[in-house]
Amino acid sequence: MSLYRTELRRLVKRRFTRWTTVLGLLVLAAVVAGVFFTNQKIDAAARAQAERSAEAQWQRDVQSAEQYRAECERVKAGGTDDPKQFPEDCSAITPPPREAIAAAWFMPATFDFRESFGDTLLPLAAILALVGFIVGASFVGAEWNTGGMMNLLLWRPKRLTVLLTKLAALLTGLLALAVTTTALWFGSFWLVATLRGSTAKVTSGVWQSFALTGLRGVALAVVATVVGFALASLGRHTAMALGGVVALMVVGQFGLAILLDLAGVKFAEAWLLPTYGAAWMRKTVTLENWESCEATYFGSCEPEKLVITWQQSSVLLGVGMAVLLVAALWAMRRRDVA
Amino acid sequence: MPAVLEIEGLRKTYKSRRRGTRNALDGFDMRVEAGQVHGFLGPNGSGKTTTLRTLLGLIRPDGGRMTILGHEVPAALPEVAGQIGAIVESPQFFPHFTARDTLSLLAGAGEVPATRVDEVLELVGLRDRAGERVKTYSLGMKQRLAVASALLKNPRLLILDEPANGLDPGGIREMRSLMRDLAESGMTVVLSSHILGEIQLICDSVTIISLGRRVAFGPVEEVLAQHSSGAVRVRLEAVTDLPTAAEALTRAGIRVTGQPDHLMLAGVDKPATVTRLLAEQGLYVSELAPIAVDLESVFLELTATAPVPGQHRQVDQSTKVGGAGQPGTTGGGWGA
């Protein structure tokens, strides 16, 4: 227990942890501020202004249609008709009906909590995962790099206990940050919706759905943290984790995407990691193959589809995390500390 | 006296596909008795740090037996780790933490009372600089901090690898005095160092390692005596009597080398014999001085690492013992 408390203290004391956390929180705050300042509440005045804008737009359309018809009639009377420029019958040129120009088109942007909040949980999860990965990698990588791990092992020779206690302290810190930040995220956007949009139709079912998505975001951050920790522990350097991810993204993702595209592999995105991250957060991701046609009962052509579910993503993320963690533990147990 | 630390037949082999096999420790033995300050000496690359790392569970041995405070290690390390304070090689600390934070975190991990932090900071002379980040410290200050971290547990066995590295002369003297005080308080200290003058002054006993094997061990005086040549310098009241004296001594079986104003004698068991022999000839000595050997010359002789003009000795060129039982100089290293 003393080791756990000490590692928790060490985690919080580290400048890197503090600065990375602050940076992540600043990015999230900037997102909230951006949404706040680019949206506004729809009141009677805004609706009236939108109605006036729609009316003005319709008037301009009527005027334009009349000018066009007059031009058509003048050209046809002159005998210099260009069939590509005007229709056969100039009377076919009519302005749109008034109801076709909706006032909603001229409404200012507004934040509808029920419609839009779910989309904001994806960047929240991405930032938390990034912070978790970097802090996790640095927490163990810097310890190896500066000799702190060797010092600690002289005090606590049980290597696996040391590594797992470090991980437990790291995950405690990460969970405290992720849960607090997610709660603040919910609160901030509720405030944005209240002041700059609408909180209508947010039923208990909607709350439940958002809460589950938020939880999946926290779980994603936990996975990223463990992966960063395990990679840096394997390489005994922070750079091992960061370099590994850069290599994975450049070679494994962009390179693989280009290769799969050149090879004409169908559902190429199914081989790329971000697809599974998105499926985890959105519950499903539907991939479409426009090269093939599946006829419908109505005679139309639908693309072939592949649905990737959050359950499939959970297997991939879980197995990947477990493999890396077991490898890190095995290396910790077996390798010399030279 | 009971042994605090015992090593028998310790082996550690490094295998490399490209460079072959290297025996870093090749059946190494060591014994340190309670309450001693024990010097652990060896040329660069001889296996000193590998021995200490293996002893402390940082490296897995390939063979041999080790005990600390009567417990087999590395199996029983968790039980005895609280009684061992150690620094291995150069001091390494997280650069952005202060000395106090560094020690406080170690104390927390080892369940040592927080009050002990200030005690050891005082002991190593870092009290007034304890609030500064370690990255601002000089090598000597880092060394002091490392010693402080090793003393934090108030250990029964203190293992220090090159503790005088980077210390100023005053610091070296303080360190020497600290080691003596610790040993007097009952702590056993194992000291690895290349400052042989210091080792000779501080240590009760020594172990000398070369190419992974022990080449000498025992109390410092015994090791020096074993390698003393029995040389004695003799001066007489009258320089003109030197030839007569040389003749008398040679007849008695003593090897004599004549010098302009004195004689150098070799193979003398008891200097009193010389006085008696010369007195029988009516010759009276004005000086009879046994030529003492120091630890440095014994070390250079035993490890065959004395510099030779015109030659550049390589790191792994030192004495290898065992095998045919004959000491000799060999080129070790990868593939040896």
TrEMBL record, chain A:
The keyword Nuclease does not apply. The chain crosses the membrane at residues 21-38, 121-142, 163-186, 206-232, 239-260, 313-332. GO terms for cellular component: plasma membrane. GO terms for molecular function: ABC-type transporter activity. The keyword Ubl conjugation does not apply. Keywords: Membrane, Transmembrane, Transmembrane helix. This is ABC transporter permease. It comes from Micromonospora endolithica.
Automatic annotation (TrEMBL), chain B:
Residues 322-336 have a biased composition (Gly residues). Keywords: ATP-binding, Nucleotide-binding, Transport. It holds the Pfam family ABC_tran. Residues 5-236 form the ABC transporter domain. The keyword Transport applies. It comes from the Bacteria. InterPro entries: AAA+_ATPase (IPR003593), ABC_transporter-like_ATP-bd (IPR003439), ABC_transporter-like_CS (IPR017871), P-loop_NTPase (IPR027417). GO terms for molecular function: ATP binding; ATP hydrolysis activity. Residues 310-336 are annotated as: Disordered. Belongs to the ABC transporter superfamily. PANTHER family: ABC TRANSPORTER, ATP-BINDING PROTEIN (PTHR43335). This is ATP-binding cassette domain-containing protein. The lineage of its organism: Bacteria, Bacillati, Actinomycetota, Actinomycetes, Micromonosporales.
